[in-house]
Specification:
CATH topology: Growth Hormone, Chain: A
Largest sheet: none
Number of strands: 0
CATH superfamily: MFS general substrate transporter like domains
């Protein structure tokens, strides 16, 4: 059996580089995923899409993203192969972005987005598994937060609207998709030449040897169940916001596309900051109180959209910034808490399952439901839908068992994993 005495953890510098590079790669991936959302005012007009069709585009990508996560994560754990999967998926989703740019109808664009979801879905579970294998346990929550949230939000939520909306204004939305495909090829090359295939044996550093937990046992764990339910709700919250907030800001509140891009960029800035801040806070005060607090803050965004009528887009952006701090707990409920509660050797599998179920039941059905609500009752109904989602997440967080190792040690509690 391989133990921590037979494998060596690389330097702190390498751990930092690995975390930042995987974060950059996921950010490029998210830049591609978000491109359709931020350019939707142009796409909807050009292809004459209904709100329901807008929701279906988001739902379709979420479906194949989920199916990919559900299959690629467990396959990676079984084969013990991480690096080649991340590289292959990165190259494939770049090609899918180009396909989105040449789509001339709703069905062709839907097909391109389905393929993109299939390419992207396995990247995050495998990236989390690489981080768990390489990064010291005391920094695991922060590193996983950075890996999932920093690049994805600085690039996918902040840079994307500021870059793609001007491109769509100056040229067309198609050029935006072509531009979005280029950086991924560079990222794939950096991963290939600078990262190693993570060794086995470091996931359980500081813990006694034990038999590997079965998937059935893992899924029966209380925290895993709660995290899965929260994933359904908050993935719904995110994909509905991405799909419909640009339309709400331009159609209901009357902002032009450029201002809409700046307001949406505030979400990315918020999530980029909270990629460090929220997981770091949870490492120090605990996962449960952090979950409860940010779920309450998640109410700020839809309430601001519904009731703020001060006319200042900058103040609206500030409110959105605080409301979007909810994004900071995504790596915690998708990977960190399940891994701490069950078995870190199952990180890729558990992340794939939690993310996959969240994407299928949340990301797939919620945008189409939100689109139907918007067509039937007006687009303001989408904001009320967001309020329901984050309120339900708050209730679930109340029943979570604290899992942060440092916090449990300070409280004199035994580790959840023994």
């Amino acid at each position: 059996m391989i133990t921590t005495s037979t494998v060596r953890r690389r330097s702190d510098g390498y751990q930092t580089w690995l975390t930042l590079l995987l974060s950059l790669n996921f950010g490029i991936l998210f830049f591609d995923r978000q491109a359709a959302n931020f350019m939707m005012p142009f796409i909807q007009k050009d292809l004459m899409l209904s709100n329901t069709q807008v929701g279906l585009l988001s739902s379709g990508l979420s479906l194949t993203w989920a199916l990919s996560g559900l299959t690629v994560g467990p396959l990676s754990d079984k084969l013990g192969s991480r690096k080649p999967i991340v590289i292959g998926a990165t190259v494939l989703f770049c090609l899918c972005s180009m396909l989105s740019g040449i789509a001339g109808s709703f069905l062709l664009l839907l097909g391109a987005r389905l393929l993109m979801g299939a390419a992207e879905g396995g990247v995050m579970p495998v990236s989390h598994a690489m981080i768990v294998s390489e990064v010291k346990p005391k920094w695991r929550g922060t590193a996983m937060g950075v890996g999932q949230n920093l690049g994805s939000n600085l690039l996918g939520s902040t840079a994307a609207p500021l870059i793609l909306v001007p491109i769509a204004i100056a040229y067309t939305w198609r050029e935006g998709f072509f531009f979005a495909a280029i950086p991924g090829l560079i990222s794939a090359g950096l991963i290939w030449f600078t990262l190693r295939e993570p060794p086995k044996g470091l996931e359980n550093e500081g813990q006694p040897e034990r038999e590997k937990v079965t998937i059935k046992q893992a899924l029966a764990n209380r925290n895993v169940l709660i995290c899965t339910l929260i994933a359904i709700l908050l993935v719904s919250y995110l994909v509905v916001t991405w799909a419909f907030m640009p339309l709400y800001l331009t159609q209901s509140l009357g902002f032009d596309e450029t201002v809409m891009g700046w307001i949406m960029a505030a979400l990315g800035i918020s999530a980029g900051v909270n990629a460090f801040l929220v997981p770091w806070i949870s490492d120090n005060i605990g996962r449960k109180p952090t979950f409860i607090a940010v779920c309450v803050m998640g109410l700020i965004l839809p309430l601001a959209a519904l009731y703020y009528d001060g006319g200042s887009w900058l103040f609206m952006a500030i409110l959105f910034y605080f409301g979007w701090s909810l994004n900071g707990i995504f790596p915690l409920f998708m990977a960190t808490v399940p891994a701490e509660s069950v078995d870190p050797r199952l990180t890729a599998t558990l992340t794939g399952i939690v993310m996959g179920i969240g994407e299928v039941l949340g990301g797939v059905f919620s945008p189409t439901l939100a689109g139907a609500l918007a067509d039937s009752y007006g687009i303001s109904a989408v904001m009320w839908f967001l309020i329901v989602l984050t309120s339900a997440s708050f209730v679930l967080a109340l029943f979570m068992v604290e899992s942060a190792p440092t916090v449990r040690h300070k409280r004199g509690l035994h580790p959840l994993i023994a």
